[in-house]
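Tokens in:
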């Protein structure tokens, strides 16, 4: 099967422990979540445990301190189901934040299900008009976020990209806040040209003038005069006081994703970031 989503789900699955690295650009967390959501709706009594952290994955993910935690959960899972030991079930959902540039990894954040893990949303609404085309922004920044170009932490100067639509949330205050899930974008898009695509990046802009990549994804706009809604790949990241969440939309981000064969211009209106 191309993915677990293609497996016949006419009967409940065997007990499952599913692990993904937040920053795995080959197998991102949303693939596990799609499988979990469909299966938990169809078979609500199925035992499915989810574990998400930064490490033990494909690029950009790196092997970090969480490896020991994952192995302990696997050992307990097998001991309970294969050896018949009286071991506690692993948490329904267990997550840890991504740690970069000396920031401590926070967690575990646990819940019985993914939908019970989140307490709310941080939102931005921007009514201004922005425009970009398919030629993209700074090639050096695109190279810096290439999955094969280093570890999970990608930090560059916080200059705004040319030829992009850029949006900023207010700086975090007090104890800051933690992103735990998929950044969601809603926008009215007007498209001219052929084969449009959007490369979306979410950054943490630090007070020292640098920015660290939090999430990225590629999206093919609808182009049917309806409001577009899309998500970046999920992550868990703490925005400390004084740090700014910055969304960046561009026409390409090669070599993370292949540039379009067409020429196009995208105009963005009434964007919301959640």
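Residues out:
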């Amino acid at each position: 099967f191309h993915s677990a989503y293609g497996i016949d789900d006419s009967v409940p699955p065997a007990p499952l422990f599913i692990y993904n690295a937040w920053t795995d650009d080959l197998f991102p967390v949303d693939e596990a979540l799609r499988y979990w959501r469909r299966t938990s709706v169809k078979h609500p009594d199925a035992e499915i445990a989810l574990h998400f952290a930064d490490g033990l994955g494909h690029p950009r993910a790196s092997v970090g301190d969480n490896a020991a935690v994952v192995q302990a959960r696997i050992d307990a899972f097998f001991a309970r189901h294969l050896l018949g030991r009286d071991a506690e079930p692993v948490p329904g959902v267990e997550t840890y934040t991504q740690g970069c540039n000396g920031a401590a990894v926070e967690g575990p954040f646990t819940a019985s299900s993914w939908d019970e893990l989140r307490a709310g949303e941080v939102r931005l609404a921007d009514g201004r008009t922005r425009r970009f085309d398919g030629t993209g922004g700074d090639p050096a920044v695109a190279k810096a976020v290439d999955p094969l170009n280093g570890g999970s932490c990608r930090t560059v100067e916080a200059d705004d990209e040319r030829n992009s639509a850029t949006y900023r949330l207010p700086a975090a205050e007090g104890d800051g806040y933690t992103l735990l899930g998929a950044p969601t974008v809603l926008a009215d898009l007007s498209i001219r040209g052929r084969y449009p695509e959007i490369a979306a990046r979410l950054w943490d802009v630090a007070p020292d003038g640098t920015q660290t990549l939090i999430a990225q994804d590629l999206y093919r706009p609808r182009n049917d005069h309806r409001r577009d809604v899309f998500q970046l790949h999920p992550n868990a990241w703490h925005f400390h006081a004084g740090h700014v969440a910055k969304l960046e939309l561009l026409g390409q981000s090669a070599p993370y994703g292949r540039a379009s064969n067409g020429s196009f211009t995208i105009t963005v209106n009434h964007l919301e970031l959640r």
